[in-house]
Each structure stands twice: as structure tokens, then as C-alpha cells.
Fold each of these.
Amino acid sequence: MNVLLFSGSLRGDSLNKKLIIIASKFIESSGHKATILDLKEFPFPLYDQDMEDMYGISESVKKMSSHIALADALMIATPEYNGSIPGVLKNCIDWLSRVEPLPIKGKQLLLLSASPSFLGGVRGLWHTRVPFEALGVHVYPTMFIVSKADVAFDAYDKLIDLKKMKELESLVSAFIFYCSRKNI
Amino acid sequence: MNVLLFSGSLRGDSLNKKLIIIASKFIESSGHKATILDLKEFPFPLYDQDMEDMYGISESVKKMSSHIALADALMIATPEYNGSIPGVLKNCIDWLSRVEPLPIKGKQLLLLSASPSFLGGVRGLWHTRVPFEALGVHVYPTMFIVSKADVAFDAYDKLIDLKKMKELESLVSAFIFYCSRKNI
Amino acid sequence: MNVLLFSGSLRGDSLNKKLIIIASKFIESSGHKATILDLKEFPFPLYDQDMEDMYGISESVKKMSSHIALADALMIATPEYNGSIPGVLKNCIDWLSRVEPLPIKGKQLLLLSASPSFLGGVRGLWHTRVPFEALGVHVYPTMFIVSKADVAFDAYDKLIDLKKMKELESLVSAFIFYCSRKNI
Amino acid sequence: MNVLLFSGSLRGDSLNKKLIIIASKFIESSGHKATILDLKEFPFPLYDQDMEDMYGISESVKKMSSHIALADALMIATPEYNGSIPGVLKNCIDWLSRVEPLPIKGKQLLLLSASPSFLGGVRGLWHTRVPFEALGVHVYPTMFIVSKADVAFDAYDKLIDLKKMKELESLVSAFIFYCSRKNI
């Protein structure tokens, strides 16, 4: 199985990118392929229908859509901005939704979130589900949250809390098992 | 009273910009000032904390924040993208939330939506409330929705349905009355 | 496959009960079993932890949980009350969530809504997803909405709009196919 | 000013009832009147339109509506059940929404939540806003959350964390000041 992973944050030292790397290792150690994208390499402009009418869908949108089309499952780790989905990630979804046929439709998605706040991005995650579900994505009911994430990672970018590491490993494993049942 | 209005869509011929113009006329005919902004003239980049750390808050973000600081009330008309807030508008909020002290905090906001769809952006509006409320904005409970908006405006950019015109006029009037009570 | 169906409304002549019956016929005509429950026959009291501490889980909650445990998939048709899930349906979920082990966890669910309003319960449906997803239910991304439902059914309790009948038939069929792949 | 307070939980020893009592004392010490209701004394049946058609609005619904009509502002403390509003509280709203003219429309509301969970009911609070806003209630943007609430109160039913006590006092005070400006 080929799992595509990316973070909803552009920052180089993003806590969510660290979470993506941990998840990717769990995927690989269970014998599957993990493909990591960095949104920074997909410089989508802010969505503007005039721009789409004049220039069409950009190459970077098409390239990201191809990655999604090739993936058997998706994992996205996203921060919470102002109690909701980051504009960056929403803008990415808005462009992806313009590609026909819609490569993301019917895909399985697992959502993760790392946030320095006490609540750990739980409101953001529930808001992030909605546009994906509106596009026909099967968003896995259980999600994974790291609160106080600015002090949650050790020097090797692993979660200090071993119970949380186990929880993420189990969730990734359960998600992959669920996805594999579909792909028979 | 000075009411600041803008649309969450960048498109030149945006249905939501038409709605903003109708609302601005109702504001002016009731003796108040309407200031219309076009997000296209505020070219915010996609939010990236690295960029903020290196370059700080951009001039266009500061300029928009000053407009908000000077406003007694806000009206935003926004389309719905994929069942939720447009990435463009959310990205705008994400940048505005970085300005200190937060000029949008405590402001009154009325939300409008025009959408070609049958449901007229109702899901998008409810999602749009949340980041504003998370920032301490008083979002007016009643909102205004134009469904099938691609065929809802006449050649003079007024709503063909006179009942809807009346409904918007009443809502704008009730909102301004509510705001004026606060500003005593 | 055994599909359990019920309506989130108690009313005898409920529009959502009519929708349930149409869906059940599509299930049966595709060779599967449809089991219809009526919430009126499961008189759950309003959830009160004191009551649970004193008397435990009631027989009617246990009986409904057994039905869910035996189901391969669920379909719920629900009205929208005040922009959200009906208290009746939420109270039902609150009681079901107290049964251990949780029979509803991991089940597949398709949501439908009939509503006299123009918006047809779309806000209610998106709110109804959340408690189910919080309990680990896989809520199918596509949902089915009948707006202006008070004039949408004919004398034989079928949808007058044949396109909507086809849409529901296709959705039920796609949902059952999806479940059949997941429930190995 | 007369502030009406109640908890969305029926339990006698409810953590949210304790929160209501703390808030009521802050109201009274600032020279205003606090009226506390207990939902247990307003035994609303589960909403059923057949019942309403046959028997009309019950006396307990009318009595609660009268209390709301007499209030200058509302405070509700509610637990989170399954990531959302408790069925008990939603059912209460569903009945209140049937009273004409709607006494709750246009009222100011402050939401509080105490929950034993780590996240302290934040998802529930955001879901609880919606039906109130759909009914025209001005829900104050800032809300107050006590997480791990089972160990948050001392023997005198005060919050052990003095910073949280201060935070609640400030919020109650800011809310009342806001209401006093709006209720001219």
C-alpha cells in the first residue's frame, strides 16, 4: 500500500511535519510505502476563479493531484489556526477540488494534529474533516492529537510520551488494516 | 457609523461582491458610511510562520488591520468552497490574527453569502463564523443567503426577488441598530 | 447483509420515516435484509447519570444496542431541529454510548434527511455526523437530502421527483457495495 | 440586571451545576440578580410533534420560557456528550423553540463547560452555540472551559486553580458589561 503524507503547515520546523515523519516510519515498518510531500514545494496561489479561467489548473496542482491519484490512502497532520483549518490547507483543498475527475474522491484519510495549545488542535481537526467529506473522502473517525506540542518532541523528533507513541502506532496500524480491507 | 465591507472571493465578477454593493447602499441610505475593500488589493501570501519570523507582518496585512480598527462594524459576503470557508478568506483571517493588539477583537460582524448552489452557502457560513468567534468577534446570529445566485441578480446587479431585497434591507437595518446600541 | 434503519423523529407520520421505507425497499430489492426500528418503541428517558448509577442501562437501551450489534450497516434519516441534530436522536446516542463494549463502534452509517425547509436539513446532517464519528462510526461522506419534503412525497409515499428517487437508489447501492468490501 | 443560569446536565452532583453557582456569586457580588434553574424541575418529554399537536406546549416549557422572557441575559454550563451538545439540553432547546413569540430570540448568552476529560468540553461548546444562534441568540464569543473537572473543585465547590477563578470572574464581568450596553 502507498500512503501519501503531508502537513497542513508550511513552516520548515513544523511540529506537524515531525508527526508526519513518525507516522511514515510506522507505515514503513509495517511493510508499506510512505510518500511524504511538502506543501512548500507546491506553491498554489490563492484560489481565484479569474485566474483559473485564464490560466487553467496550474502544474503544481496537477502534480499534487497525481500523487493523490497514486495513493492508496492519505495522512495529513495539520495545525489549528483560529479554531479552524489553516487557510493554507483549505486553499490547497480548494484547488484540488477543481481537478476532474476528482482524484481525492473515495480516498481514505487519517487526520493528525500537533499544536502548542492545551487543546491540541481538536477544533481544527473537526473543521478539517468537513471539506474532505464534502469531496467524498472517507475520513477515519479516530484522529490523533498532540497537545502542548512545542514541548512534546525529544531531540530525535520522537514523542517523549511513550504512551502517545504507542497510541499513534496503534492508530496507524488500525487505519492501514481498515484501508487494506477496502482494496481487496 | 463606519461599516467596512468585503467579499471572501477574489473573482472580479464575484456574486458576493454584488451582494456587498447592495448592502453598502442600504447602509448609506440609512445615513451611515460604507467602506468597501477588495481582497485582490490585499495580496496576502499563504501564511507561513517562517515568513513571518523573517519578514514580520506585511504592509498589506497592516493596512487591512487599520481599516478594521477604524470600522464600527463589519460585513463580509463569502462563497462556500467545498462545504466550508474559502481558503482565501481563512488565510486572510490567519494573517489578521497575527496583528497585536488584535483590531478585529470585539467587533460586530454580519455574514452574507451568494452561491450558485441550491443550498446557497449555508454550510460555508456556519464554518465561517467559527474563526471569527475564536478571535472574539460578535458574529450576528442571523445571516443572509442567496441560493442559485448565478441567476439571482438582474442587469442592474440588484436581486430579482424583491422579497429577498427587503429581507436584506431589514437585516442590514437590524444589524446597524444593534451595533449602534453598543457604541453609546 | 443486514441493514438497520430508523428515523430520528418520533412523529407517526414523519417524513423521515417515509424516507426510511423507500431506502429499505432499495436494500431489499438488491437482495439484502432491511430491519426498521421505530424510536417510539424505545422510550429512552432523558439521560441522567444519577438514573444510570441507580438503575443501570435500561432494557430498551440494551435491546436497541443488540439490534445495532447484529447490523452490518446502519441508515438513519433525521430531521433538522434548530440547525442541528434533534434532541431525541442525540439523547438516543447518549444512552447508546454508555453500553460496553460499544456495539456501534466501527459500524458503517449512511445519513438521510427530509425537511420541509428550503435547505432540507443540511446543517442538521453535518451536526449529526459528529457524535457518531466521536464514537468511532464510519459515516459515509455522501448524504441524501430532501428539501421542501412536505410536498415531496406522492400518495404512495414515493418521492415525486424521479431524479431524486434515482439518486437515493444509487447512493444506497454505492453504500452497500462499500460496506460489503469493508465488512469482510 | 437579571441573569438566568442553568446547567445542561441533570445529575444532582453535576460539575456544571457547581460552575453555575460560582458564576452566580460573581453576578451577585457585582450587584446584579442571579436566578438559577434546575432542568430536573422542568421535566420536558422527548420532543414529538404528535404530542405537541395533541397536547400543545406543556406547562413546564411555558414556565421555563417565562423565566427566559424575564431574563436580561443567560448563562448555561453544559457537559459534552460524545463530542457534542447533550441530548437533554438539545431537547430543551427544541421545546423552547416551539413557543411563540420566541422568548429566547435576541437574548445574550454566555456558555461555560466543566468536563472530566482533558479537552474539557470544547467540542461540545462549539456545537452548543449553533442551535442557539439559529434561534437568534447572541452567544458571547469567549467561552469558559474547565478540563479535568472531576478534580478541579475544592471542598467548598470553588475552583482549586485560582487563575481559573480569576478568569471566570473577568469573563462574567466582561459579559455583564457587554449586556448592559446592549440591553438599553
Note: Chain C touches chain A at residues 126, 129-130, 132-142, 178, 181-182, 184 (CB under 8 Å).
Amino acid sequence: MQLLKEKIINEGIALSEEVLKVDSFLNHQIDPVLMAEMGKEFARYFNNKGKKITRVLTIESSGIAIGLTTALELGVPLVFARKKKSLTMSNDIFVAKVYSFTKQESNDITVSKRFLSSDDHVLVIDDFLAHGEAALGLASVVEQSGASVAGIGIVIEKSFQAGAEKLKEAGYDVHSLARIKGMQKGKVEFMEEELVK
Amino acid sequence: MQLLKEKIINEGIALSEEVLKVDSFLNHQIDPVLMAEMGKEFARYFNNKGKKITRVLTIESSGIAIGLTTALELGVPLVFARKKKSLTMSNDIFVAKVYSFTKQESNDITVSKRFLSSDDHVLVIDDFLAHGEAALGLASVVEQSGASVAGIGIVIEKSFQAGAEKLKEAGYDVHSLARIKGMQKGKVEFMEEELVK
């Protein structure tokens, strides 16, 4: 998505070969117009694929804004999973363990059983895809409920890390709005664009 | 706001005299259409007051959705403050201490100095107003930057707790979309509506 790539080039800061800082428009300060446009793009892509999405699922905090604009465009509710340090044992929630490579710790993500049912077709949305842990955790929550994963929408995919490949191998339809081939301090290189179907 | 009150009556669950559960549309599952309408109402109210808002400030996680629709309607960036358990000493951030009566602990909220400047007129947005701690913390962050607080927009005000009074005494223009006079288990009573200017 051209608008997003331009934002990354103009405002993103590659701090190292692995860390891209985008806090001026994505995960601390938020550009609402960009969010709305990205929500439209996710809706367009998955509608074109004939997916009958009934809910959008994301994870707090950075997924909420892009989840919301996508849900608004699709006309369905948004659910955001909560992160907890320790396991809350409860019969009322779905739980998945998510390992953070950045923080080197596991967190549980939880969703109330009231907000996912076996009839649902769920679009999973997240801001970043690196090792795929968060997206796989969200997909696991969906599958625990008996619902189906209609697809996975990602704002920024770090294509040089393992997540995208893992998700595709697991059979998910992944749509990433910007795909980064590699980074060096101060420099971001994007994957060549395939024609989007 | 009638739409919100109906949601609270139909889907909100008063668990006690103090706790109102609204996780089916506000802070776990989110109703995007309601969020969009509430964002329009905040923009309408504060535009009518002649406030030239340049930024919206809220707090993760539950403030992000309503902050985003408000910022989208006003055509300005959204900034969300982060919650931290312990103080991150840094010259790059504004910090305020926020006491949670529910959790009986203090957290720091932080905002990068890059995203607030002395020229800004900032609309503070939050989902709940009870004792006023979060809103006062956000206002403190705004004032540390030299910016002005253009107003405070609240989705649900528990008018029987001290927060609303505290904010008004401090001179802030507070606009709450639903004002709850009192609760009993299973029952919510709203304040009588003044005519909104």
C-alpha cells in the first residue's frame, strides 16, 4: 500500500536490522486518516476473496486502532484480546500463550467466550508480523471457539523474519500492507510488489 | 447521548453499586458504529464551543477506540499514553502518576515529548470517569508540555463518584455522553438530561 510505504519512508526510523520505530503514526501517535485507509484496504481485499467476515479480532494495545477501522468498514464488531502476565484460570475465557522475542517472555492472551462462537468467520488483524507469535495466538483463540479464521491482515510485515512463512504454511490467507525485505540502521528496503489480486 | 444510554440499558451489567460491565460494546468487544457516533458527538460539542483542537490524547487500551473516532472526526492526530508499572526515567517523556482505586496501585502514564508541544490545544478523551485519576493524569501530561487542555470528553461518567466534580473545580470543560446517578446490582439510573448547548 503506497500511502503506508511513504509514511514508513518519511517517518519510520530503522533503529537496527530488526527494529523499526513507527511511533509517530502507528503505535503511540496515530494518524487516523491512514488508519481509515488501511481499514478500507483490508475490507476490500477480504471482501474480494468472498470471505463472509462476522468479527474482527486483534490484540491490545497497538492493534485496536487498525482493528477498529477495519471492523467499521466491514460492518462487524471488533474484539480485542487482552494480554496478561500470568494465567488467569477461568472457564469463561479462551487463552493462548504468546512468546515475545523482544521481551523474551511469555504472556497469555485472553478472550471472553461470550465474544466468539462456532458460527463466526473471524478476520485477525495486527500491526506487526515478525515471528508470528501474536497472530498464531489469535488464530488459536479463534479455533478454540470452533470459529474459522477468514484471514490475517497485517500492517507491517518483516518478511525477513519467520512469521509470514509460518502463517502461510499453516494455510492462512495473509494480507500485509507493507512488506519489508530488510533493514539497516537508517534504511528500509521493501519487497517487490506483486500485482494484488 | 441516547444511543449510548440504550446500549448501557440493554447490554450493560451493573455488578454492584460501583462496577458497571460494558465489555460487550466498549472495552473488550467494541461496537464500531457506536464508537463512530460518539466520536462525532465529541467533535460536534467541542467544535461548537469554538475550541481549535490540534490533538486528541487518551490512554491505552480502552481509550484508543473512542480516541480514534474522535480524532478522525476532528481531522487531527491521536496520541495514546502508555501505562507502565514502574517509572521509566527518561528525558524524552512526560510522566504522570495515576492511582487506580480498583487495583489499589499507582501506575505511571507516559507520553513521548515528540508528540505534544506548547502550541497544542489538546482534547483529552477517556472511556470512564470515576475518581478522575486518569483524566487528571492526562491533563497533567498536557500541561507539562506547555499545551492547553481544550476539554475532556468522557464516554461514561459515574456521577456519584468524585471525578466529575474534581475536573470541573479544576476548570476543565467536561462533556460526558452518559452520566450515571447511581447503580444497584442489575439496575442503572441516569442523571436527568440538561439541554445540551
Note: Chain A is about 30% helix and 35% strand.
Amino acid sequence: MLPTIELTVPAAILGSGTIVGPKEAQGPLGESFDLSLQDTLANQSSWEKAEQHLMQTAIRLALEQARIQAENIDVLIAGDLLNQIITSSFCARGLGIPFLGIYGACSSFTEGLAIGGLLLQNESVNHVLCATSSHNSTAERQYRYPTEYGGQLPPTAQFTVTGAGAAVLGKRAKAGPHLTRITLGRVIDLGVTNPFEMGAAMAPAAADTLYRHFQDTGLEPDYYDIILTGDLARVGKKILIDLMQNKGVNLSGNYEDCGVLIYDTSQKVNAGGSGCACSAVVVLGHMLKELYKGSIKRLLVAATGALMSPTSYQQGESIPGIAHAVAIEWIDGGIGNG
Amino acid sequence: MLPTIELTVPAAILGSGTIVGPKEAQGPLGESFDLSLQDTLANQSSWEKAEQHLMQTAIRLALEQARIQAENIDVLIAGDLLNQIITSSFCARGLGIPFLGIYGACSSFTEGLAIGGLLLQNESVNHVLCATSSHNSTAERQYRYPTEYGGQLPPTAQFTVTGAGAAVLGKRAKAGPHLTRITLGRVIDLGVTNPFEMGAAMAPAAADTLYRHFQDTGLEPDYYDIILTGDLARVGKKILIDLMQNKGVNLSGNYEDCGVLIYDTSQKVNAGGSGCACSAVVVLGHMLKELYKGSIKRLLVAATGALMSPTSYQQGESIPGIAHAVAIEWIDGGIGNG
């Protein structure tokens, strides 16, 4: 089984782009996103098209910040929550570059970064574009109820983030944030069957990945300035802290969850945020800015995914979870080439 | 944009497994598959669970043939046609190894091999397990109509293959089939909107990938003993030959399509087979045996995928296609390590 990989050539994040919906823009991290929508339809004829607009915009912003044309990108790696990842496929259609579609539910953000970082170890791969998105109205109606239905939600439920994040990875030697370490996740399922308890379903997978990360590397949690999970939200976050405590790892000092950070408790999001975009916009929007400011230097992100479908749920299956961890560290330059 | 990659370390196919449904077992290649089902439900309580059984079985067979335990596999790369790729996720749950979920519709077979081959270029990655599956009854009801409905199909429609294929990739130096070259596909969409004309929708993507493969490598089509597309079937196959002819590439000598090969015209499959398993079982079942027999030495496979969803179709979108090409060649040993 693959242990945590230390990337021989750390993958530089050459540029990134984030865009969110109005609710996320009003949240505590609102200022750190590049763009936000006035309304979640984004002047499109459907929410699915609005989600495409989000991912296209995040990609455009990332390419602009990296000062690279799409045709100079070697491969786009993208995934989203919609059936057949249509957001990603339809965005790829407009770019004219090789495309690898991925699906890891809300772990797609770090799954994409991980594959991108590993592909960059190939000599012939120089620039990888990673993108992911989610939209509250497309996801809710596909997984649970249409938002127009106004179904009541229990306090353990989470609110799918409307937004998209994209990053250009490369080998450039300049100072900046780099992916340095990757721990690929295993599918862990402790039998949670309630689709309104995603945090509880995913926490054991996050615990497995983070524990293996520290075991493999010999690092202590306080090596990182911050350890982030993707969307365990308030319920799953507590469970993860307990699970790690049971394994002898104390996360209480520097651990946060993107689903907790992105909304204020006054925003009626129950346990917090979820969705592929949750970790993508918090990391590529807020956290990268903190890295550039120098307030943090080392970040470990474990985006979490619940790998169920409405069909598997209706057939009585429990909810398998997964979490892929990626370390992002400020490197002062001189590493890599190109 | 990434050109065709010549793998520095060719990825050995150390073992493979195939299983098909009864109809595929009765087809012209029936003898070449490892196992077949008596009926498509496979003693399970749902077709979705039957499809899981197919993938689990293919994985077990591949591990056995490669003489490797699951825990010594570094990563499972798997994808299928079901929403949220539940077949792959639920199979991964039982293996306890890192998992990367992919989605490329029916191109998932070569998408997985391609990612696996590229990951193996990393020093720390030694064994990758790739798997894919499709099931006629799960796919038809999700994408078009439940099979019980008995809807009539036009002659351009294709029949989703019931089956699964898995392969263990590694670096071993022994003589055998190896992945040698990879051309990642771009999303190409010439505006086909009819979900019963998948072959026509995917042929332009296959043409793009194959043309770039020959341009990038300087190879002529007759370098390969056989060039295979995944599931263009009879309609798309003719279109591909024409498209390539227009680009000055003559495929007429050694080109075949897995969707044409897998069924006899008497089997009432309209234009031919489709589904992730179509190319997987034809290549890992039939073609690998031909490589071992020595009747062919060099094979180019471009599995083709239609990246639409029922939602995108209902919203009036056309059907984007993609095709990833992988060269599989007999190498007499002495390359690689481990």
C-alpha cells in the first residue's frame, strides 16, 4: 500500500482562481474570494449552467494569475458532484486540452491536486490545471430535495457551497506555495446510513488518512501551522478530534474544517458547509493568501468525500467516506525547473 | 498541450481479470473471458449489486493472476457509468487500499490505464490496480429507459456490455505486455444531440486522439498490428474511418472496434456494444491472449466516452466525446525493475 509520497519535484501553485455564491460572499471569508455572484443563477438558464459558469470563471482566473494560456496547459484534471461530472466535462469542452475526469465527491479537490502533483513528476508534464465546483441548488436537488421544496433539515445536515476553485500547478522555481506531500485516501465505512449526517460518515476516513500521514512521515501535527479537513462541518469535526485522540494524536491545537470556516453560525447552514467547492475556495482563496502574507507557512489539507449515491442510499447501503491529504508549504524558491 | 508520452518505464500488465454477462459469453469472443454469469442478476438483490459483484470478481482474478495481495497494491484507479461511480467506490471499500475514482464514461478503461501508467513513473509507486465495469440493466435505466419497459431502439443505438475488467500494472522486468505510449484525449463536440447515436458523437474525439498519436510519434498506423476503438460500434466506426481518411490517415487495414467485435450481428444489439466494460473485456480478455499467443505484438487502444448526462441532454446540450489512447506492446523483458 502506497505510503505518503514526498514529491521529488514539489508542485508549485502558479496561479489560482475562486468564485462563490452570494451566501459564501457574506460569510467570514467573503473578502478572500476573487469573485462572487449576485444570485446563484448567474444569468444562466439553469443552475447546472450556472455551475459551469462558476468553474469556467475559476479556470479563467487561475490561468490569468499564472500568466499562462490554456493551450500551454498539459492536462485539465477536474471533478464535481453532478451525475457524470457534467460541469467538468462541459468546461473541458471549451478548453481544447487533454482532460482527465475524476470523481471523489467532496474530496475531488485534493484528489485532483494529488493526481496533478504526481503527474508533474513525469518529465514531459509541465503544467496541470485542477478545477472543482459545487452549487447548492444543483447538488441539493440531485442528492436530497430540490431547494424549491423547502424541506426541513436536521441540525446535522450541511449546506452545499456554491462556488468553484481552480489552480495551475507547475515546476517553476520561484518562491511560493508548493504541494510537497501527498497521502492518498482509502475508502472507510463505519456504517452511517443517514445522508443528513455526512460529517459523521466522512470523519473516520479523514482520521485514517491523517493518522497514516503522521505515521508515514514521522511529523507531529504541530509541524503544520494549520491542518484542514474539507467538509466535516461542526458534527464531523468533533468526531475527528475524538477519533484522533483515541489514536494518540492531538489535533486540538491547530485543526480547522473548511465547512466550519466558510459560514457564520448565524447563516442558517446547520452543521456547516459541504461540497467540492468548500475546501477548494477556502484553500485557494483564503489559505493561499495567508501563505503569501506569511501568517502561515505549512498547511495540510484533507478534503473529505462521501461516496454514496441516491440509488445506493435507497438500496439500503451505508455511506463510504474518503479523504485525500495534500501538504501545501511555502518554499523560498530554487527547487524544480521550467 | 501534452503530446503523446513515451513511458520511460513501460508499465507491465502483471495480471488481468475479465467477467461478462450471458449475452457477451455467447458472442464471438465468449471463449476468451475468464468467467461469465448465468444471468445478469448474479444472485444479487439488485443490478447495481450485480455490477459490484462483476468488478469485485474481475479484481480478484487480476490479483490472483498477478500473484499479488490487495494490500501490496499501491492504489486502485477505478470508474464506471453509475452516478457517483458507486460500483467503483463500493468495491474500493472492501479492499482497504488508496483509491482514485475516475469518470470518463466508456473511456474510463484507458483513462485508468493512462493514469496508472503515469503514476508508475513515480519511484514510490510500484503496483497499480485498474478496474472498470458496466451493466446493461443499470446503465440503460439510468441513461435511457429501464430494460423492463421494452422501449424500441433505433438501429444506431448500442447495447451496453455487462461485464468488468481489471488489470494489475507494475514495473516487473519479465517478458509480457506493457503500456508503452499514452495519448490523453481532449473533449470534442461536433453537436450530436441524439443519445441513440453515441458512435457518431464519439467518433470525432477518437479521430482527434488517434491523429495526434500518429502526428506526435511519427508512427504509421501499420506500426500497430491492430488499432482498436472502444465502443464506436458499426455506425461510429465508419465515421471514424472517413474522418481519418479526410486527415490523410488510412485506418482501413488494421482497425477494429471493440463494440463491433464483442457481439455477433445476430444478437440484436443494433449498432453494437458500448459501456466501460466493452473495451476492458475485449482488450484484457481477448487481445491480451493474442499478445501472449504471439499472433499480435503491438496494439493501440482508444477507449471512447460520451460525456453527457440525462440532465444535460434534457437541457438541450449536445454530447461531448473523449478518447484516451494507450499502446500495449509485447516486450521481451529486461526493462524496469521491482
Note: The mean pLDDT of chain B is 95.
